[in-house]
């Protein structure tokens, strides 16, 4: 009988039914962004029935390395990034295999960089129509996203900036025109 060791990742325990806090605020995931957790959503979470069964503590007899999720193993070894079904090689692997450009296109610009690009363009030009904003940001979004996901991401970015008071919109008969808020 061949015996070998298998190391599994350790996941730190988190207090049950409690949100994750950062900068004194509760957060939740929305698509690939973190958004502040609303009081109503927090109440729904706290009112959920607590399950006493902890499936993570279950020992599975006769399990082998082949029973493990290959994506989880590759992710633990920091060989891949992304979320299913959009997985791509990790940055360190891309650098040694001369795939840096492909990695950057898969990853795309993060929300803060997209926001800075949009705000900088609004500062330069005074206003941009929605189609112009789409043309500005479309190719810098992760290429792993489909058209619907890219449109949702752009709509969410505009909504977040408008709610933060950084931009405002006016509508004409054809499209919306976005402006930088004067301060």
What's this model, at a glance?
The chain contains seven helices and eight strands. With 183 residues, it is an alpha+beta fold. The strands form three sheets. It has a three-stranded antiparallel β-sheet with strand order 1-2-3, with no helix packed on it. Strands 6-8-7 form a three-stranded antiparallel β-sheet.
Question: Would you kindly provide a written description of the structure presented here, covering whatever features stand out?
Answer:
With 183 residues, this protein is an alpha+beta fold. It folds into three domains: 13-52, no CATH class; 62-107, no CATH class; 111-180, Orthogonal Bundle (Arc Repressor Mutant, subunit A). Helices cover 38% and strands 19% of the residues. It is built from seven helices and eight strands. It has helices spanning 39-47, 70-76, 91-96, 100-107, 111-125, 130-137, 147-163, and strands at residues 20-22, 25-30, 33-36, 80-83, 86-89, 127-129, 167-171, 176-180. It has a three-stranded antiparallel β-sheet with strand order 1-2-3, with no helix packed on it. The protein has a three-stranded antiparallel β-sheet with strand order 6-8-7. A two-stranded antiparallel ribbon has the order 4-5. β4 (80-83) and β5 form a beta hairpin. The longest helix has 17 residues, at 147-163. It is flat and about 65 Å long.
């Amino acid at each position: 009988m061949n015996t070998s060791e298998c190391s599994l990742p350790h996941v730190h325990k988190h207090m049950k039914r409690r949100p994750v806090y950062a900068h004194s605020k509760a957060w939740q995931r929305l698509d690939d962004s973190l958004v502040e957790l609303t009081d109503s959503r927090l109440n729904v979470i706290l009112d959920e029935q607590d399950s006493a069964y902890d499936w993570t503590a279950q020992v599975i007899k006769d399990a082998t390395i082949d029973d493990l999720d290959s994506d989880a193993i590759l992710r633990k070894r920091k060989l891949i990034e992304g979320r299913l079904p959009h997985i791509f090689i990790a940055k360190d692997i891309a650098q040694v295999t001369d795939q840096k450009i492909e990695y950057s296109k898969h990853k795309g610009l993060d929300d803060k960089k997209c926001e800075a690009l949009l705000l900088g363009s609004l500062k330069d030009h005074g206003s941009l129509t929605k189609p112009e904003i789409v043309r500005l940001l479309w190719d810098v979004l992760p290429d792993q996203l489909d058209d619907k996901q890219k449109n949702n991401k752009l709509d969410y970015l505009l909504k977040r900036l408008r709610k933060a008071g950084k931009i405002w919109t006016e509508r004409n008969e054809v499209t919306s025109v976005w402006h930088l808020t004067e301060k």
